[in-house]
Amino acid sequence: MTRTLIRVAIITAALLITALLVPDIVIEWSEDAEGIAVTLFILALVFGLVNGFIRPIARLVSIPLNIATLGLFSVVLNAGLLLLVAWVIDLVFGPLIVIGGFPPQLGLEAIAAAAVGSFIISAVSAALTILIPDA
User: Fold this and answer.
1) Which contacts of 87-95 are long-range, i.e. CB under 8 A and separated by 24 or more positions?
2) pLDDT in tens, 96-117
3) H helices within 69-107, ranges in order?
4) Structure pTM?
5) Does residue 95 contact residue 103 with C-beta atoms inside 8 Å?
6) What is the C-alpha to C-alpha distance for residues 85 and 70, in angstroms, rounded to an integer?
7) Among the four 23, 66, 99, 110, which has the fewest Cβ within 10 Å?
C-alpha cells in the first residue's frame, strides 16, 4: 500500500515539474490548496491507469517500430499516451490539463509539447525512483 502511495506521489511530482517547465502544458489550477491537491491526484491517477493498462499493450504492439527506429518510437508512444491522458481527463473531468492546445485542437504544437513533457516526466520519475528506496 505504501509503495502505491509513493508511486502516486512520484507521478504527481513529475507531472507538477513538467507543467512548470513546459510552457505549452497548462494545468487548470484551483484557487485553494485542496483543489490543487485533488487536481494533481486526478492527473496522477489517470496517468497511472493509462501507464499501467494501456502502455504495456501499446509497447508490445509497437515492437517492430521500435526495432526499426532503434527505440526512438518510444518517444512518440509516450507522447501519444500523454495526449491520451489529457483527452480522457477532458472527457471525464473537464479540461484540467491542456497540452499545446489539445484538447480540442491536435496539431504539431500539441505533439511537440507532449514529446517534451513525456521526456521530462520519464526523467523526473526515474530520478525520484532512484532517490526513494521504497519506490
Assistant:
1) 88/46, 88/50, 89/42, 89/43, 89/46, 92/46, 93/42, 94/28, 95/28
2) 999 999 998 999 999 999 999 9
3) 73-93
4) 0.88
5) yes
6) 26
7) 23
The answer for residues whose C-beta is within 8 angstroms of residue 21's C-beta and 6 or more apart is: 120
| Three cell numbers written together for 25 | 502544458
In a 10 Å sphere around its CB, with 0-12 CB exposed, 13-18 middle and 19+ buried, how is residue 1 labelled?
Answer: exposed
**How many whole angstroms separate alpha carbon 69 and alpha carbon 56?**
19
- Pair 97, 25: CB distance under 8 Å: yes
What φ, ψ does residue 117 adopt, rounded to 5°?
A: -65, -40
Give the closest residue to 110 by CA, choosing from 133, 85, 74, 135.
85
For 65-100, the pLDDT digits (tens) are 999 999 889 889 999 999 999 999 999 998 899 999
Alpha-carbon distance of 121 to 124, in angstroms, equals: 5
